[in-house]
Amino acid sequence: MSGHSCHCGSGILFEECCQPYISGLKNAPTAEALMRSRYSAYAVHNAGYLWETTAPAMRKYHSKSAILQWARSNHWVKLEILEATETTVEFRAYYLDPKLKALTHHEKSVFINEGGKWYYLDGEY
Question: By CB distance 3.0 to 4.6 Å, which of 12, 43, 47, 63 could disulfide with 76?
Fold first, then answer.
């Protein structure tokens, strides 16, 4: 991955953008930064990060294996941020399914900050 633009579409190198959050070196400073890093985690198939950045109260509704299967079964093409507030991010994630059909996931995600860390709470599709 060295020297590649970040998957989140920021135009910054992956190593300087989302990778420090995904690798645990830093905490995402905003809900939008967390959302971007979660998209990048799907692109690099890091289910552990996706599960760990889900709000603790919501983790029982998700499994690392299901997250990993979803991440691996799709090819993540592009992230488009439509609107971001302090606690919400509306986005479109473009991807190709296993049959290479182009699809779009449109969601308004809600994030919470607990103990100085941002977590994904839930979203409206």
Answer: 43
Q: Match 């977590």 to its residue by tokens.
A: 119
Predicted structure pTM score: 0.94
Domain 14-124 has what CATH class? Answer: alpha beta
Single out the residue of 1, 16, 4, 70 nearest to residue 39, CA to CA.
70
For every one of its 125 residues, what pLDDT tens digit does the chain have, with 9 covering 90 and above?
457 999 999 999 999 999 999 999 999 999 999 999 999 999 999 999 999 999 999 999 989 999 999 999 999 999 999 999 999 999 999 999 999 999 999 999 999 999 999 999 999 98
